[in-house]
Design goal:
- By secondary structure, this protein is α/β, with parallel strands linked by helices.
- The chain folds into three domains: about 350 residues, Alpha-Beta Barrel (TIM Barrel); about 60 residues, Oligo-1,6-glucosidase, Domain 2 (Oligo-1,6-glucosidase, domain 2, Alpha-Beta Complex); about 80 residues, Immunoglobulin-like (Sandwich).
- About 25% of the residues lie in helices and about 15% in strands.
- The chain contains twelve helices and 20 strands.
- The strands form five sheets. The chain has an eight-stranded parallel beta sheet, with helices on one face. A five-stranded antiparallel beta sheet has the order 13-14-15-20-17, covered by helices on one side. It has a three-stranded antiparallel beta sheet with strand order 16-19-18, with no helix packed on it.
- α5 crosses α6, α7 runs parallel beside α9 and α10 packs parallel to α12.
- The longest helix has 19 residues.
- The protein starts with 9 loop residues before the first strand and ends with a strand.
- Bound molecules: 1-deoxynojirimycin.
């Protein structure tokens, strides 16, 4: 386990929208450098920066044209190296975003791969052997290149799939994982990783990490083997480099493939979705943190606890407030509901991630037209709201048309400046929770997690190491009688026999009295 992850709290930065330092309407590296003190002050000590490499930006940079070159709109490679250096001076680690499964169709590798004449790149992507022959079960494109074949896509039309081979090749155009062309793709990706680690980056968030080997089995044994091989070489040189998977299957990503962390991502109806975003299935909102919505914490716990047991001691499950693909929680939850949800996420085991702007409750601007392949994700990617100045402090361009995306025009749009001045703000609450997390080792990544009481939409009582925590998202008071029965107890090892403890952190009313925990409506507390 990587030592620095133990007390890491990540801040995700969508670089286009974070801070524009040169007035061109788009965020940049210098803007991030200028904001490092803010991020540190908030309580985050690590960054994940979305793809910032040369790209035609048809998918916001997830279509890489050159893995070795920073995108000009953010600055130069030297600016990025300086960002690593300045962050390190402040005790902040930096992860970049690696897109190993596909490139842009404008990548030099792909241009050469599409040539009629066989060459070194012919096998870098997945091609059939005839211009009108398709690929069963996979999206593919024909008619674009002079080569006599069609090629496989990994996501959008602009993102051809790199070739790591098929687990069990069945057609003569399919290559096995150990084919020299597939091994060359693997080596090329190792080289990209080593290049950036060599320049001071601390690791990567890995895009679509499960997508490498095609027609893989249910256990993803092919893709896991590729990752283990990549990590073996990389970790020999950089044992402290950290890798977080976009996989959302921690037993596979961590125990199978060797990642340090894996996200629990939002999918309609899954455990994470049931906490804050359970409104997408055409029914009423049943999110656990929505007061009175009739949610059920066990929908989250049943999935989480299984994964937790299978990955404990091997790696970390990463819970996130949101990311650049997911609607912000402010879409449906109130400030208070979010405070409780975030307090819960930030006191769970593993390594948490905070999406820029969530700390002030930025809105999800659902009606924005799509930008750079964002579609319904665009509303989550709007400019950071710093203060009351022009463009809410994101950019000093006088031409609103130059802004990457419009800033929130609502009269009450939250800003960092306004919330810093209000001790009860979401920003100050988030910052206090993170401070407490840094203060108590028992709240950090490794301390044991036990559920003492969990029933439907009722309060949840859980233990982290020697600390006792309780969250009550409902609109009525809740009491947990330690050592006696209050409803059903599930999971964990049971009762709180020890004398009542003292609340060292609370949102709302919370007390421990005579062995009972009494939590007021919509409250959260940590008892030590
Ligand atoms: C997942 C990324 O998070 C998303 O933004 C991107 O569009 C796809 N992968 C394709 O790379």
């Amino acid at each position: 386990m990587i030592k620095w992850l133990k007390d890491a709290v990540f801040y995700e930065i969508y670089p286009q929208s974070f801070k524009d330092s040169n007035g061109d309407g788009i965020g940049d590296f210098q803007g991030i450098i200028d904001s490092l003190d803010y991020i540190k002050g908030l309580g985050c000590n690590a960054l994940w920066i979305n793809p910032c490499f040369d790209s035609p930006f048809k998918d916001a940079g997830y279509d890489v044209r050159d893995y070795y070159k920073a995108a000009e709109r953010y600055g130069t490679n030297e600016d990025l190296y300086r960002l690593f250096e300045t962050a390190h001076e402040k005790g902040i680690h930096v992860l970049l975003d690696l897109v190993p499964g596909h490139t842009s169709e404008e990548h030099e590798w792909f241009k050469r791969s599409g040539k009629a004449e066989p060459n070194e790149m012919s096998g870098r992507y997945i091609w059939t052997d005839f211009w009108i022959r398709g690929m069963q079960g996979h999206p593919y494109i024909g008619g674009e290149c002079e080569r006599n074949g069609t090629y496989m896509l990994n996501f959008f039309k602009c993102q051809p799939a790199l070739n790591y081979g098929f687990l069990d090749p069945k057609e003569n155009w399919q290559k096995g994982m150990e084919d020299p062309d597939c091994l060359a793709t693997r080596e090329a990706m190792k080289d990209v990783i080593l290049f950036w680690l060599g320049h001071g980056c601390d690791g990567f968030r890995v895009d679509m990490a499960a997508s490498l080997v095609k027609d893989d089995d249910d256990n993803k044994s092919g893709t896991c083997a590729v990752w283990r091989d990549i990590f073996k070489d990389v970790r020999e040189k950089y044992p402290e480099a950290a890798f977080v998977a976009e996989w959302s299957d921690p037993p596979r990503a961590i125990a199978g493939a060797g990642f340090d962390m894996d996200f629990f991502l939002d999918h309609p109806g899954n455990g994470y979705n049931s906490l804050m975003r359970d409104y997408e299935r055409g029914e009423a909102d049943h999110s656990y943190f929505k007061a009175g919505a009739g949610g059920d914490i066990n929908r989250f716990l049943s999935q989480y606890q299984d994964w937790y047991e299978k990955t404990k001691g091997k790696g970390y499950i990463s819970l996130l407030t949101c990311n650049h693909d997911t609607p912000r929680t402010s879409y449906t939850l109130t400030d208070r509901e979010r405070m409780l949800a975030f307090a819960f996420l930030f006191t769970m085991p593993g390594v948490p991630f905070l999406y820029y702007g969530d700390e002030i409750g930025m809105r999800y601007l659902a009606d924005l037209p799509t930008k750079e392949g964002g579609y319904t994700r665009t509303g989550t990617r709007t400019p950071m709201q710093w203060d009351g100045s022009r463009n809410l402090g994101f950019s000093d361009t006088e031409d609103p048309g130059r802004l990457y995306l419009p800033v929130d025009e609502a009269e009450n749009a939250p800003t960092v400046q306004a919330q810093e001045e209000d001790p009860t703000s979401l920003l100050n609450t988030v910052s206090r929770i993170l401070q407490v997390r840094h203060e108590y080792e028992d709240l950090q990544a490794d301390a044991e997690f036990d559920v003492l009481y969990a029933k439907g939409s009722d309060m949840l009582v859980y233990r982290r190491g020697s600390l006792l925590l309780a969250v009550n998202p409902s609109a009525r008071e809740a009491v947990y009688r330690a050592g006696s029965e209050v409803g059903e107890k599930t999971g964990g090892t049971g009762s709180v026999e020890e004398p009542a403890k003292k609340a060292v952190f609370a949102i709302g009313e919370a007390k421990a009295e005579g062995g009972s925990l009494i939590l007021g409506p919509q409250s959260f507390a940590i008892f030590a």
